[in-house]
Amino acid sequence: MPKQEYPLAFLAEFLGANLSGDSKAVIKSIAPLTSASSGSISFLEKTQYKDQLKTTEASAVILREADLSFLPKHINALVVADPYLSYAKISSLFNKSPNIDPGIHPTAILGKNVIVGSNVSIGAYSVIGNKVQLADGVVIGEGCAISDDVVIGENSRLYPRVVIYYGVKIGKRALVHSGAVIGADGFGMANDKGKWEKIYQLGSVEIGDDVEIGANTTIDRGALKNTIIEDGVKLDNQIQVGHNDKIGAHTAIAGCVAIAGSVTIGKHCMIGGASCFNGHIEIADQVIITGMTGVENSITQKGIYSSGIPASPHLNWRRILVRIMSLDQIAKRLQKLEKIIFKEE
Amino acid sequence: MPKQEYPLAFLAEFLGANLSGDSKAVIKSIAPLTSASSGSISFLEKTQYKDQLKTTEASAVILREADLSFLPKHINALVVADPYLSYAKISSLFNKSPNIDPGIHPTAILGKNVIVGSNVSIGAYSVIGNKVQLADGVVIGEGCAISDDVVIGENSRLYPRVVIYYGVKIGKRALVHSGAVIGADGFGMANDKGKWEKIYQLGSVEIGDDVEIGANTTIDRGALKNTIIEDGVKLDNQIQVGHNDKIGAHTAIAGCVAIAGSVTIGKHCMIGGASCFNGHIEIADQVIITGMTGVENSITQKGIYSSGIPASPHLNWRRILVRIMSLDQIAKRLQKLEKIIFKEE
Amino acid sequence: MPKQEYPLAFLAEFLGANLSGDSKAVIKSIAPLTSASSGSISFLEKTQYKDQLKTTEASAVILREADLSFLPKHINALVVADPYLSYAKISSLFNKSPNIDPGIHPTAILGKNVIVGSNVSIGAYSVIGNKVQLADGVVIGEGCAISDDVVIGENSRLYPRVVIYYGVKIGKRALVHSGAVIGADGFGMANDKGKWEKIYQLGSVEIGDDVEIGANTTIDRGALKNTIIEDGVKLDNQIQVGHNDKIGAHTAIAGCVAIAGSVTIGKHCMIGGASCFNGHIEIADQVIITGMTGVENSITQKGIYSSGIPASPHLNWRRILVRIMSLDQIAKRLQKLEKIIFKEE
User: Fold this and answer.
1) Angle between helices A314-325 and C314-325 (to 10 degrees)
2) Which of A152, B20, C8, C238 fits as disulfide partner to B77, beta carbons 3.0 to 4.6 Å?
3) A140 contacts in chain B (CB < 8 Å)
4) What are phi and psi of A31, to 5 degrees?
5) How far is CA C299 from the centre of its chain?
6) Number of neighbouring beta carbons within 10 Å of residue C24
């Protein structure tokens, strides 16, 4: 872990920001406006929070030109077009994650014909199968299990205890968090007089570049073709991606989403947590699904979609539930009244 | 991985199918009708897709007698009663999963009094506790942790990084995918003036024959008696099976289903993904639960049950939600009208 | 595993119970009233089950003073104020979990400047980073991966294959089950013209004393501040705790709950399984959420809250769904009738 201190001028240049104030101010951390202290840089994401500028103890604030006038004179400013994005960009400079030294730990076990690029790190007790290809700069954490014929692209990183089944391909700069399992069998079977006959899963998984995969997320291999995760997809923790699914480029999926098999999700979608996708459906590009939504059918138009119900006090909800369960009768009673009234008129 | 090529006559005999066409045609892969190419065998699951037969490039198609007339003459056919089941059966012949050689890896650690059958494979860095019994043909993947007194039946396979707590019994021909945890403590506790007192989980887990358990699925040990998974049960990924649950034979459960404690699910049930079961309920045999259903009460009759709500455009859904939340008032207003109208009549 | 047999007098003293009957009766196991046999102790949780006392074969029953008269004379009794709590307390005496011997397994790998207390056990193939502190009595199961600067308090236990990212702090007497991942990156990113820019997660995770964490549960590190789990929190399996979340002391959360980021949950809450929390909300103390509820907004009052819908027969539910989807029109039709009727009157 390097000493992470930067003069404000360095951050301004890093961000292409206009600096207003003391270019030599030393920035040691990032903090929210409300909890920042001297040596911190903060950011104003939305003008509606501008009152937080009055009391913040941050040494510098990243903000928009339009908000600069709200900042007390004694606080330095970095003026940018998108403060939240600028915060994201400098967050890498303050990352405290331990450094990984290249090298293959003596306890790592490599199969036959493994191709290992330069500056690769393979952690203790990892097991790498035959004919695996690890490109330059790949980091394999401790205790990973990588089966035969897996290909991992440049500068991708697997955290400890990731499992990759045979034949899976992962692109460049992937981040795969601990406990993720990629390439396990899809859930395929045929019924034979009440018993289930396994359908061997003959496809694999193809993952593009710049993909992040959260802890304990599972991505199943395809039945006949491959399960595909395109470039720039971001998957949170504990997501289930079924066999033959295709997740379009730059789509972000929040935690605990369950995606059944043979689902195609478009590019640039945003999927809220704990949502669920029925199998064999297709979702257009730029679709936003709010949390806990049940996506039962294909969605052909971009837009926001929902079916979650917010919590109510339990007794109210019981009362509403009784009405929901009798909705068909309610509708029929209404119809009956309508017939009477509109005949009368 | 053997060279997986078969003359059509071999597949016909394997399936007990009637072959129509060139019995010497060499089949190298299985593919869907729409993406098959020369050397592939495909299958027509339902007559409704018969138009795909016209344009398929498959060398052979598995289909029903009744659909044979729709197949172009130049394509070979295997005529069977259930094409999807036949596809399942031959899928094993094209499985590309790496071969596992029997043998105990020198880094595997075995406790005292472990009984190891013939042709057992134990992967690198697996740790096996005391008095564990591994029957003939068992495969333990890399980095598994198996605690004391575990029994695993013939030809069962654990993929890498499976954890089995002490005393768990697994039958024959099980497939347990990576990241699965079997036998962790059930979630039991008693409240002691606001603090939780742990209830030690004194039961175990008993798993029958021919069970498949998906990646990162968890099956908790029982509190006083055992959690039971009967023969032929198929569990997809990321399912939670609570303590004291009993899952009946040949029931299939899709991904991300949450089953609270002390639930009994019958035989031959099919449970859709992301469904949720309340504790202490009983589900009859042959019940089908569609995806994202909340099973709050016991179900005594076979049949299909649901409570999922499909996604709508967000603004429509907001409007509907407002109405749902005022359903009790709507019903009362309706009642009021009814009183007026039916008195008037 | 010790021989777990106790004279009833010992259990009475352990619980502070009044013994009625044979103080020398030997108790070898705990069992429910309906399946108990000679040598078992059972308990009557609620008076409504008192008929089970007539036929139980238990050698002793833990019950309330008020229920003592329902117990056949030949069965011994331990009279307590809260039989279920007493059952919890003695469950530890019958725990069959294998003994863990202190000691560092020769295959365990320790980084630099690791502080190891007395009576610490570190299992085979565990990897411990630099500057880790393991207090007295800590147990690290097989194949755990613990990164730099992690601190684990006295008598805490990690089951096999737990992963702890750098800088995480865990209190005393924690139980962390297999597959749990603590401190992985929160799901933070900013959109840059359609692509996602990662927000490095600079916070950590702080876990209090007496916390239990279920199998395959994930707790993400904070973005700028820490994710906090307070004392006495009990988390079941497959729960997702997002970045910056704070779970108040003695709150219990059942399996498969998804908690988005920046959520504060109060103390002494009980959260039902498969519930889902929207980000950036605050839940008061002593809130009870029933299973499968979508908590979209802050809850400021203690009480019970719900939004789950129980399963119905599928065709009924389809009919109800049609009505739900037209609820807005139903409400408008009702309004129209009201206008007509109430003008007429």
Assistant:
1) 100
2) B20
3) none
4) -150, 155
5) 21
6) 9
Nearest alpha-carbon partner for B17 in B62, B74, B56 = B62
Report the DSSP beta bridge partners of residue C26. C7
Residue with tokens 């820019």: C197
**What is the maximal distance between C-alpha atoms in chain A?**
91
C232 touches chain A (CB under 8 A): no
CATH of the domain at C31: 3.40.1390.10
Other CB atoms within 10 Å distance of the CB of residue B60: 25
CB A201 within 8 A of CB A188: yes
Q: Same domain for B161 and B194?
A: yes
Q: Within this chain, do residues C182 and C73 fall inside the same structural domain, yes or no?
A: no
C333 located within any domain: yes
Does residue A1 sit within a domain? no
Interchain pair A197, B309: CB under 8 A? no
ipTM of predicted complex: 0.97
Q: Is residue C1 part of a domain?
A: no
Terminal Cα-to-Cα distance of chain A (whole angstroms): 82
Contact predicate C324/C306, CB 8 Å? no
The residue written with tokens 């992040």 in the block is: A212
Angle between helices A83-91 and A8-15 in degrees, nearest 10: 110
Q: Give kind and range of the element (H or E) at residue C160.
A: none
Sign of torsion over alpha carbons B3, B4, B5, B9: positive
Segments in chain C forming alpha helices (H) = 8-15, 52-55, 83-91, 314-325, 327-344
Q: Are residues A77 and A181 in the same domain?
A: no
Determine the distance in angstroms separating the CA of B160 from the nearest CA of chain A, rounded to an integer.
7
Give pLDDT tens digits along chain A (345 positions). 456 899 999 999 999 999 999 999 999 999 999 999 999 999 999 999 999 999 999 999 999 999 999 999 999 999 999 999 999 999 999 998 999 999 999 999 999 999 999 999 999 999 999 999 999 999 999 999 999 999 999 999 999 999 999 999 999 999 999 999 999 999 999 999 999 999 999 999 999 999 999 999 999 999 999 999 999 999 999 999 999 999 999 999 999 999 999 999 999 999 999 999 999 999 999 999 999 999 999 999 999 999 999 999 999 999 999 999 999 999 999 999 999 988 755
Clarify whether residues B107 and B221 are in a common domain: yes
Burial B212-235 (b: 16+ CB within 10 A, else e): bbbbbbbbbbbbbbbbbbbbbbbb
Distance CA B259, CA A341 (A): 50
Secondary structure class of A50 (helix, strand, coil): coil
Contact C306 A324 (CB under 8 A): no
Catalytic residue numbers of B, as ranges:
243
B80, B41 Cβ separation under 8 angstroms: no
Q: Are B324 and B278 in the same domain?
A: no
- Looking at the fold, whether C209 and C318 belong to one and the same domain comes out as no
Name the phi and psi angles at C276, rounded to 5. -140, 130
pTM (global) more than 0.80: yes
Distance from CA of B170 to the nearest CA of C (A): 18
- Residues B289, B292, B297, CA angle at the centre, nearest 5°? 55
Query: What's the CA gap between B247 and B240, in Å, rounded?
Result: 12
In terms of Cα–Cα distance, which of B157, B94, B78, B92 is closest to B120?
B157
Instruction: Give partners of C (≥3 CB pairs < 8 A).
Output: A, B
A342: chain B residues, CB-CB within 8 Å: none
Interface test with C, best of A40, A238, A240, A267 (most C CBs within 10 A): A238
Which of these three, A94, A119, A141, is where a domain ends? A94
Q: What pLDDT shows up at residue B180?
A: 98
